[in-house]
Amino acid sequence: EEFARAISLALLDYMRKCHARGFTLSLSGGADSAAVAVLVLLGRIFGIEELGERGLKERLASLTRQNDEQSDLASELLTTVYQATANSGEVTRSAAERVARAVGSRHFEFSIDSIVESYKALIAEAIGRPLTWDKDDLPLQNIQARTRAPGVWLLANLSDSLLLSTGNRSEASVGYMTMDGDSCGALSPIAAVSKVFIRKWLLWMEKTGVFLRHADGSGERFAVPALAAINDQQPTAELRPPEAGQTDEGDLMPYSVLNIIEEGVVRRLGGEELLDFVREKAAAVPELCGTDRGMFETWIARFCRMFPRAAWKRRRTARGSISTDTPWGPVKEMICRFWSGTSVKENKKRRGVDFPLTVMRGKFSLSAAPERCILCAGIDQRASDAILKTNGAVCDDLISGRREKTALTAASSFWSSADSVSAGAPGLFALIRSEMSLMSPALVAR
């Protein structure tokens, strides 16, 4: 519930402040893009719940059409596209169509296979040999993902909308993404949460859903049953031929163990200590029970090989919402910057920065501009100082490896705010605190 409300608010707030005319999304029929599409839907629903449809349209003045029908607002707010190749299947195509219908987006579907084949023929002629899956597996996968980018960017440009990226923290940790392909976009709303959390959240949205309050004080649950088409699948990039049976976890490792290894690495564990930590944590995960020591060693070695090699990718990803389901994230870049053994204070002194460590672009960074510590710039100085102070304390805990106080939620709803952007007091960008299962009502209220 907290994730749904905070990130959906963040999406519409950011769009409003950018004066963009909605969002565009490459809908693959998989979990990540479905989650992002549902978050846009929830932003519209929560906005109507609090302001009414007319009030929401007044706040989203950058949208071009001002019709009275809710369906018109839905289709104007989100454009989706399914771009098929020879390796795409009917399952994902159908799932994408069902999700698009459920969220009310303006949906397109076309094949990019002829474009992919033209690139392959062009390069084959240049290098003097045909491209084959035996020799060129990874390049042949990447060219498909990259060929999808120009088409979805063109759709975003045509509507003057923001292109949403669908990367999550688990994939970013090991670089399981194609640069200038599925990683492209203007905003990445789920960048700081794990794949495990995304899959659990989608199942919750299918079965239970968010709670909507009515004016008379009553309420009801709003779920998205169409997500069953997503939840019934195993995550797959669908970039290899169908007979290869490609899955994400087959390429990498189970996402549940990836999260555990990531936590151990962030805690600066290594060698036998890291292996013992991973095996102890994995004992509580049913799907990992019975896994032998050698398999864990293989997964740890794979993660530790992939993590540093993907650092350049993480630095080039779209801006990410500051939201985590774990007390150590988002820390994709913190490790690289602070494993030198220097403390936070020493790093600040060296750089001549008087402000605490802040979260920006989905990663930790030292910033001399307090007003930029939130994704949406323009918050007032007092709020900025409070967030800087809190984040500084949080980061001290993270770097020292302690699991004590984690980040607070600083969510100031622009829906109910009397101030407008033109008045110079936009609402705060939504933050979710790190430990979602331990959220304190008093902390939310504060």
Features:
446 residues, alpha/beta, two-stranded parallel ribbon, 18 helices, disordered C terminus
Any overview of this molecule?
The protein is α/β, with parallel strands linked by helices and 446 residues long. Helix content is 49%, strand content 9%. The chain is built from 18 helices and ten strands. The protein has a four-stranded parallel sheet with strand order 3-2-1-4, sandwiched between helices. A hairpin with a 5-residue loop joins β6 and β7. The radius of gyration is 22 Å and the shape is globular.
How much of the sequence lies in strands comes to 5-15%
Task: Tell me the major beta sheet.
Answer: 4 strands, parallel
- How many extended strands? 10
Distance between the termini: 18 Å
- Structural class by SSE content: alpha/beta
Uncertain residue segments: 327-446
SSE order in H/E notation?
HEHHEHEHHEHEHEEHHHHHHEHHEEHH
Structure described in brief:
With about 450 residues, the chain is of the alpha/beta class. Helices cover about 50% and strands about 10% of the residues.
Helices and strands, with pairings:
Blueprint: H1 2-18, E1 23-26, H2 31-59, H3 70-77, E2 78-84, H4 90-103, E3 106-111, H5 113-127, H6 137-159, E4 162-164, H7 169-174, E5 187-188, H8 195-207, E6 210-213, E7 219-222, H9 228-231, H10 248-251, H11 255-266, H12 271-282, H13 293-309, H14 311-315, E8 319-320, H15 334-338, H16 344-351, E9 357-360, E10 363-366, H17 381-400, H18 441-445
Parallel strand pairs: 1-2, 1-4, 2-3, 5-8
Antiparallel strand pairs: 6-7, 9-10
